[in-house]
Structures are given as C-alpha cells and as structure tokens.
Amino acid sequence: MFQGLLSRLFVEAPGPKPLASQDAEVALAALLVRVARADDHYDQSERQRIDAILARRRGLTLHEAAERRAAAEMIEAEAPDTVRFTREIKDRIALDDRLGVIAAMWEVAYADDQRGADEESMIRLVSGLLGITDRDSALTRQKVLEQMGRDPG
C-alpha cells in the first residue's frame, strides 16, 4: 500500500509536490517512530501512543492506525538521515499542520513516562527543520503535558 513512498519523497522531480493524504500521514508517522526510537528504547507504550495519534488525526480505527504505524516503522528504517527526511516532508505538508506534528512528537516522547534527552534533541532538530521556533515548540510541549495530565514544569 505504501510501497514507493520513499521514492516519491526523494526521487520524483521536478520540485516538491504535496503528498497524497495517506502518504503524508505515513511519512509523518515515520517521524513519530524516529522520535520514539531516538533513545534506543521503543516500547509498547510508544507504539500505542503512535496508534492513538494516527487514529485521532485521521479518524482511523486502532487496527488501521496500527497498520499505518507498521508501514511507518519500515519506512523510518529505510529513510535517510533525519535532516534530509524532515526537509522533504516539510516541503510537502501545510504549515498549519506542522505544529500538530510537533505536538504529536511531544506526545510520543512522553508516552513511556520518561523524559529522554535523545528524544527531546530529536524534536528540537525536527522542529527547526519544519520551521517551528523553539518558543512555539516549548509552548506546544507545555500544552501536550497539560493535556496528558502532567506537570509541564
């Protein structure tokens, strides 16, 4: 179903074209997987959080979301370095969706109840590459923590 997504991201020319909705969501899910794997500890709580985020964003069942996450795991493993991967995605998603992507990344980072420096560094890197300021990312992080019922301090 998502075969060829990487080639559509990195090979097709000329100029970036918006991704089809399903491809865009899998590419963004791959970023979520990359954040979850940043600390070399990718557990079930992070997988479940990614599934919940995907289901919520697109009105999917948890089974459909899990299928997209599985595709995203394969794509993430094959994707080039984070800088190149994120830049390609940035050129293909709407600006107004980027803060939603950052919120989803913070949600995944805190899914396992651990504040990992590697995951936070990854989010800071991706935020900058997506054109999101550190301030906006920090405000988004605070909102996510509040929604999760945690102290943002």
Automatic annotation (TrEMBL):
Record lineage: Bacteria, Pseudomonadati, Pseudomonadota, Alphaproteobacteria, Rhodobacterales
InterPro entries: DjlA_N (IPR007791), TerB-like (IPR029024)
Superkingdom as given in the UniProt entry: Bacteria
UniProt domain Co-chaperone DjlA N-terminal: residue ranges: 26-141
This protein's name: TerB family tellurite resistance protein
